[in-house]
Design a protein that fits this description.
Number of strands: 8
Order of helices and strands: EEHEEEEHEEH
CATH topology: Gyrase A, domain 2
Largest sheet: 4 strands, mixed
Strand content: 35-45%
Structural class: alpha/beta
CATH class: Alpha Beta
CATH architecture: 2-Layer Sandwich
Radius of gyration: 15 Å
Helix content: 10-25%
Number of helices: 3
């Protein structure tokens, strides 16, 4: 699982094996240990919710994505476009989360999509 942060936009990219774990009901977890001993962690889970969420718990961030939207997205794989979620962060800014399955990994697992004739 890869996390990119650019201001108010966070991007999560996973591979097909991680997608399978998520769809099996298991959360994905990642922790980075900083030189001063502090930790920065994040986790991702699919939840029976209508809207994506982000919660901070100490030094960790937990992302919850709506299982129905992710399942609909899975039916389109492999594809370059991911899912985009928006949540209000403050009166001055909106927080955006981009979620995607690595298209190259999807192509190697699923093959190229069939084109209509």
């Amino acid at each position: 699982m890869k996390l990119q942060i650019d201001g108010q936009q966070w991007r999560l990219r996973i591979d097909e094996d991680e997608l399978a774990r998520l769809r099996d009901g298991r959360a994905l977890d990642s922790v980075s240990y900083l030189p001063d001993g502090a930790a920065f962690g994040f986790s991702l889970a699919l939840l029976p919710v209508a809207q994506a969420g982000l919660q901070r718990r100490g030094d960790s961030w937990s992302f919850g994505l709506p299982v129905e939207r992710v399942e609909a997205y899975v039916q389109q794989l492999p594809c370059k476009k991911g899912l985009e979620f928006a949540l209000p962060a403050s009166a001055a800014a909106e927080w955006r989360l981009l979620f995607e399955v690595d298209v190259r990994d999807s192509l190697s697992h699923r093959g190229a999509p069939q084109r209509p004739r």
